[in-house]
Amino acid sequence: MAEVLIVQQVLNGLALGMAYALIAVGYSLVFGILRLVNFSHGSIYAFGAHAALLFVGFEFGVLPAILLSMVCTGLLGILIDKAALEPLRKKNSVPIAALITTIGVSNIIQNLLMIWFGSEKKAFPAVFNLPMIEIGGFRIQSTQLMMCVVSLILLLVLTLVINKTKIGLAMRATEQNPKAAKLMGVNVNFVISFTFFLAGASAAIAGGLISGYYQIVYPGMGFMAGLKAFAASVLGGIGSLPGAVVGGLVVGVSECLAATFINSTYRDSVAFIILIVVLIVRPTGLFGKKGITKV
Amino acid sequence: MLKIEGLHTHYGNIHALKGIDMEIDDGEIVSLIGSNGAGKSTTLNTIAGLIHASQGKITFRGKDITNVPAYKLVDQGMSLSPEGREVFAALTVQENLRLGAYSKKDKGAIDASFQRVYDLFPRLKERINQQAGTLSGGEQQMLAIGRALMSEPGLLLLDEPSLGLAPNIVQQIFGLITDINRQGTTILLIEQNANMALSVSNRAYVLETGRISMSGDAHELADDSRVKKAYLAM
């Protein structure tokens, strides 16, 4: 019986973890390009979930709603960069200024969501209304399975974009040496905008998936999810995409196991215990590169 | 091809360039020599659009390019191989070169550029899938120059190509610079190794604390007693 419970929770955790991974890649993408932890990313995720809720209300289907929400949330990412971060880069301000700015932006988004949608928790329709699946005695909710599949496909697409396309090459070049990238004819500001778009769009999908799973959205939902995903990306090595996925899965699974076997009130603390341990034992994370400061 | 009139550049409160006039004609190799901190790199970076010019005018192929951002100049036919090489260390040699042709869309033309660069630098072809950071200093310099050539520039700006390289490698690099010039690329060269620079150049400018102090035929300058004393250590 205990084995069944463990496997069940691991499966729950993997589904949740894949969605965390989608949020975590957002941190990694932006950090890779700007060496900046974007603390507004949790609120971007909440914005994505609310946008999806809004578009679901128009009743042209859940999937088109999530797609629309992806575009809107991606554009929000660009807007944040253009309005709040690019002016700081132009002035060569200290990195901490940009970091604090993202915390401010996070509050602005969260409060705007409260004004537009109200601060109460709202019901979100199930994204995938499919029956339970039974494999070898384990019951898997089809929602969880779809969360895994959708996240996996998106992460693969993201990896392909970064490794196989021209804009991906420009992103990797900018990540390593923005000055040399400019000299190659790369419009670095465009690359940064594109990166914010990708990060926002992935967060929106995560927002849609996780909201469809818990069937609930509220303006403050991004705070905890954002911090957990941040812990996940630090665990994997911030800046590394495979790291974000592994980190997300570890955080998701340990959260579900802790909720079952320790106490469900501790579920949120697991991510932070992991974060603290990683920072003490291996600050570069599992897949992180050493010497991230440029010579 | 390139004309610079009364160029001033500031770094914050530091007045780095104090009115520079230069001209480069089609097909020339022109070098800009001067001691450390004279403003050589600043001049090149201002031309290439990396640094904002506070005053003056830069004309390239008849077009005013003053303060046009760097990424737009590549498409217009100007390309800079920066000081310290600045290769993309974690990318492969091939990816580095591909980035050099970033502004180009025609696949056939890109392949032709690859061929040209591999003909000039056979060493790079041997290391096509190697990460640029694992190359030796000389190979990285070749990669930086090759990368700058991938956009098939009319004007190639070279910042300190001899920096930190062994004398025999320096000889080799300068041989290649003359080869590139013979293939029809105009070159503006910046060097601390004034001896080497003057030996391959048609003309030269001497830069002293943000001002041009001398200019003229490279071989005449190499014979000039003041140049000899200050820059050629004779």
Provide the fold topology:
The complex is a heterodimer of chains A (295) and B (234).
Chain A: H1 2-34, H2 41-57, H3 62-90, H4 95-117, E1 122-123, E2 133-135, E3 138-140, H5 142-164, H6 166-176, H7 178-183, H8 188-214, E4 216-217, H9 221-236, H10 241-261, H11 269-281
Antiparallel strand pairs in A: 1-4, 2-3
Helix pairs in contact in A: 1-5, 1-8, 1-9, 1-10, 2-3, 2-4, 2-8, 2-9, 3-4, 3-8, 5-6, 5-8, 6-8, 9-10, 9-11, 10-11
Chain B: E1 2-11, E2 14-24, E3 29-33, H1 40-47, E4 53-60, E5 63-64, H2 70-76, E6 78-81, H3 93-100, H4 107-120, H5 122-126, H6 137-149, E7 155-159, H7 167-182, E8 186-191, H8 194-200, E9 203-208, E10 211-217, H9 218-223, H10 225-231
Parallel strand pairs in B: 3-8, 3-9, 6-7, 7-8
Antiparallel strand pairs in B: 1-2, 1-4, 4-5, 9-10
Helix pairs in contact in B: 3-6
Tags for this model:
heterodimer; A: about 300 residues; mainly alpha; ABC transporter involved in vitamin B12 uptake, BtuC; two-stranded antiparallel ribbon; 11 helices; 4 strands; globular; B: about 230 residues; alpha/beta; Rossmann fold; 6-stranded mixed sheet; 4-stranded antiparallel sheet; 10 helices; 10 strands; about 40% helix
